[in-house]
Write a structure and sequence with these properties.
Blueprint (H helix, E strand, L loop, with lengths): L15 E7 L2 E6 L3 H10 L6 H18 L7 E4 L4 H12 L6 E7 L7 H11 L2 E7 L1 H7 L3 H5 L8 H12 L4 E3 L4 H4 L4 H14 L3 H12 L3 H8 L11 H8 L8 H9 L29 H27 L4 E3 L5 H9 L2 H4 L7 H7 L19 H6 L3 H7 L2 H5 L6 H12 L6 H14 L2
Parallel strand pairs: 3-4, 3-6, 4-5, 6-7
Antiparallel strand pairs: 1-2
Helix pairs in contact: 1-14, 1-15, 2-15, 3-4, 3-17, 7-14, 9-14, 11-12, 13-14
């Protein structure tokens, strides 16, 4: 935002509206700026104790959630079993005289299935819980719908389970509350932990040593790295360790906070899939000068201005509205966002954990044993499905004939990537998913 994939077509920026007096007299008016509020909060941090700030935060959360429960139609809550959605569900149940309706998606794949966690929390809270197990065949049936829902190529694979959980919820309710925003505003992403713990050290490593380290890591496959990770205790063992290491390798080349962030949220690849273009590289999220703030704070702002706006919220809004379900976002209440940037980082993160405020409040309603576990995210088993149920579709989309219909793409590079994936380089799955989505969109 504001760019779109279509020439001469732009999107209205968040926190703005347009005053159109004539085709040549169009004025953009900003009524609320997240960047300005963030910088103001960081410059004027709260001086109160953690306990006092948590009391204030819970009051804001209560207001944000109860106000979004006002409806003359049935409403419920998405529940993944993670901290954010569990907190929203807990506070909704607190404000409800009867069991609220909660909805979750599961998978027939143990590394991706968080449905049992959601069910355990729903049972503890006493909600009326509903669960759907997402099957690969459903993905095949829905793939061609993605361009219709999003109008542009949208390669976040979690759009599919988001659609399915919305479809399931719509059978029972008309409005559903979601837990998006907790990671961005309360420092929950692993990249923040990396920036806080390792970025300053990494910057000071001599370049030749970085090159050696990079070559060592690149010599190992994701499967080999996953095998090495088994020496760690299950409680601290990261999910999808091999894939995460593959994503870490480009971070060794980062020279600035902007570089670090770009690498964290981008898919690393060896070759360009897009032929040369005169189009400028979009950098709107980086136009603001991040001076006198640390790497974590800068990345939080980048996430709010880029990842959340152009990925998370697009996904939830389009996927839910495709089922005629209204999704509401209490954790994006402007009062909550403004308060979050005033909280000192020492009250958001502790050791290897982020989101300390949300954990603290959730613990009042849910035992820690039900939500303290490694962060998983809302992902689907893309690699497994591309090797099985989606393989025929991918083979067809990456054929020479199909790729000839999109001359802007490098046929040779794409087919080489597909071949490498089939030979075992499963960390390429998300590149191929993005290309598959682009091919489906280009067909109209």
């Amino acid at each position: 935002t504001p760019l779109s994939i279509y020439e001469h077509t732009q999107k209205c920026k968040p926190g703005t509206y347009l005053v159109i007096k004539s085709p040549t007299d169009i004025k953009e008016v900003c009524y609320w700026s997240l960047y300005d509020k963030a910088i103001d909060g960081l410059k004027n941090p709260l001086q109160s104790s953690f306990e006092k700030n948590m009391t204030s935060l819970e009051a804001i959360l209560d207001t944000a959630i109860s106000s979004r429960m006002v409806a003359d139609v049935p409403l419920g809550c998405f529940l993944s079993g993670g901290i954010d959605s569990s907190l929203v569900a807990a506070l909704m149940q607190k404000h409800s005289l009867k069991p609220i309706q909660t909805f979750s998606i599961g998978f027939d794949h143990k590394h991706f299935n968080e449905a049992p966690y959601a069910k355990a929390i729903a049972t503890h809270l006493g909600t009326d819980h509903h669960e759907h197990i997402f099957k690969p065949q459903e993905a095949l049936d829905l793939m061609t719908k993605i361009p219709e829902w999003f109008d542009e190529p949208f390669a976040d694979s979690s759009a599919l389970p988001t659609f399915l959980v919305s479809k399931m919820a719509r059978q029972k309710v008309t409005v559903a509350l979601s837990g998006d925003g907790g990671d961005e505003f309360f420092a929950g992403y692993n990249r923040y932990l990396f920036a806080g713990k390792h970025w300053e050290k990494l910057k000071n490593i001599p370049a030749p040593l970085k090159v050696i380290f990079k070559h060592i890591l690149q010599s190992l496959s994701p499967k080999q790295l996953d095998a090495l990770a088994t020496i760690l205790h299950k409680r601290i063992r990261p999910n999808h360790f091999g894939e995460k290491v593959m994503k870490f390798i480009p971070l060794l080349e980062a020279e600035s906070t902007q570089d670090l962030y770009r690498h964290c949220v981008s898919l690393p690849h060896r070759h360009s899939f897009l032929k040369e273009s005169n189009a400028p590289s979009p950098s709107f999220a980086f136009d603001h000068k991040m001076t006198n703030i640390n790497a974590i704070e800068a990345m939080q702002i980048y996430d709010a201005l880029f990842y959340m706006m152009d990925d998370v919220l697009v996904k939830v809004d389009r996927a839910s509205m495709a089922t005629s379900l209204e999704a509401r976002e209490p954790l994006l209440d402007h009062r909550l966002i403004e308060f979050s940037f005033k909280l000192p980082m020492s009250q958001k993160m502790s050791g290897s954990q982020g989101k300390m405020p949300l954990r603290h409040i959730l613990h009042k309603y849910v035992p820690k044993a039900l939500f303290e576990r490694p962060k998983a995210g809302f992902a689907i088993p893309v690699a497994d499905w591309l090797k099985t149920d989606l393989r025929d579709m991918a083979e067809e989309c990456f054929s020479t004939h199909a790729l000839s219909q999109t001359p802007e793409l490098h046929t040779t590079h794409i087919q080489a990537e597909w071949y490498a994936f089939k030979k075992g380089q499963t960390h390429l799955a998300h590149h191929l998913w993005a290309l598959l989505i682009y091919q489906l969109w280009a067909r109209g």
